[in-house]
């Protein structure tokens, strides 16, 4: 299974995924492409260091979102990509991308969805005063963090937490949850039944 990761920022999830898939030689799954809308982002450096091919683009050089999404689809097809992982990709994806990849595009979000979708989920959770939050991996359906949920893990909020301290613990969880989810998909254990995702464990 050839996988493309879309990211805009630091790319710690990108790196965790590359390293985890390389370490487990089990199912044939590899990160074959990074798609990044911020050519200066740290994730682009990580891709270079890890020898992962990258498509770096600047949205402002295109007349519309549709125009760059069409180009992305062409790159994905050229590379034979079968799964897209959004990991800190800070742009909405539209039907140009979602329609051809529905059921083959996942996202990781730093909260227990459907709580705290959108930007600054960790700040939202602190602001709300919840006692637990966490991370969610879900299929992308064109809404904002709204698609069918594949996996979630909870993180306790501590009295003394700041956004930074809480983000650190959520990220540590993400770095396990995302590779686990990708492996389950690569092994063909994940299926969507309308709103619900079934995960077949064991055997
Ligand atoms: C992660 O917390 C992810 O949940 C969110 O964006 C962050 C990306 O972090 N969608 P990184 O770039 O992988 O370090």
From TrEMBL:
Site residues (Raises pKa of active site His), renumbered to this chain: 145
Chain positions recorded as (6R)-10-formyltetrahydrofolate binding sites: 65, 90-93, 107
Record GO terms (molecular function): phosphoribosylglycinamide formyltransferase activity
Formyl transferase N-terminal domain boundaries: 2-181
Gene3D superfamilies cross-referenced by the UniProt entry: Formyl transferase, N-terminal domain
Residues annotated as catalytic: 109 (proton donor)
Pfam families documented for this protein: Formyl_trans_N (PF00551)
Keywords assigned by UniProt, alphabetized: Purine biosynthesis, Transferase
Enzyme nomenclature, EC number: 2.1.2.2
Catalytic reaction(s) noted: N(1)-(5-phospho-beta-D-ribosyl)glycinamide + (6R)-10-formyltetrahydrofolate = N(2)-formyl-N(1)-(5-phospho-beta-D-ribosyl)glycinamide + (6S)-5,6,7,8-tetrahydrofolate + H(+)
Pathway annotation: Purine metabolism; IMP biosynthesis via de novo pathway; N(2)-formyl-N(1)-(5-phospho-D-ribosyl)glycinamide from N(1)-(5-phospho-D-ribosyl)glycinamide (10-formyl THF route): step 1/1
InterPro entries listed in its UniProt record: Formyl_transf_N (IPR002376), Formyl_transf_N_sf (IPR036477), GART (IPR004607)
Superkingdom: Bacteria
Positions of N(1)-(5-phospho-beta-D-ribosyl)glycinamide binding: 11-13
Family: Belongs to the GART family.
Its job: Catalyzes the transfer of a formyl group from 10-formyltetrahydrofolate to 5-phospho-ribosyl-glycinamide (GAR), producing 5-phospho-ribosyl-N-formylglycinamide (FGAR) and tetrahydrofolate.
Name of the protein in question: Phosphoribosylglycinamide formyltransferase
Organism: Cohnella soli
Gene transcribed to yield this protein: purN
């Amino acid at each position: 299974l050839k996988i493309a990761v879309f990211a805009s920022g630091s790319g710690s999830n990108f790196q965790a995924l590359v390293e985890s898939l390389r370490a487990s030689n089990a199912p044939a799954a590899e990160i074959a492409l990074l798609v990044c809308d911020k050519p200066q982002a740290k994730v682009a450096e990580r891709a270079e260091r890890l020898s992962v091919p990258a498509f770096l683009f600047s949205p402002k050089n295109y007349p519309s979102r549709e125009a760059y999404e069409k180009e992305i689809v062409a790159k994905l097809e050229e590379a034979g990509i079968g799964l897209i992982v959004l990991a800190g990709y800070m742009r909405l994806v539209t039907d140009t991308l979602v329609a051809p990849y529905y059921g083959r595009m996942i996202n990781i979000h730093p909260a227990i969805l459907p709580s705290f979708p959108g930007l600054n989920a960790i700040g939202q959770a602190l602001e709300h005063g919840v006692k637990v939050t966490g991370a969610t991996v879900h299929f992308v359906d064109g809404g904002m963090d709204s698609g069918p949920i594949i996996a979630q893990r909870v993180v306790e909020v501590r009295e003394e937490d700041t956004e930074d301290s809480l983000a650190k613990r959520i990220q540590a969880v993400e770095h396990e949850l995302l590779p686990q989810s990708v492996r389950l998909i690569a092994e063909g254990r994940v299926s969507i039944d309308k709103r619900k995702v079934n995960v077949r464990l064991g055997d």
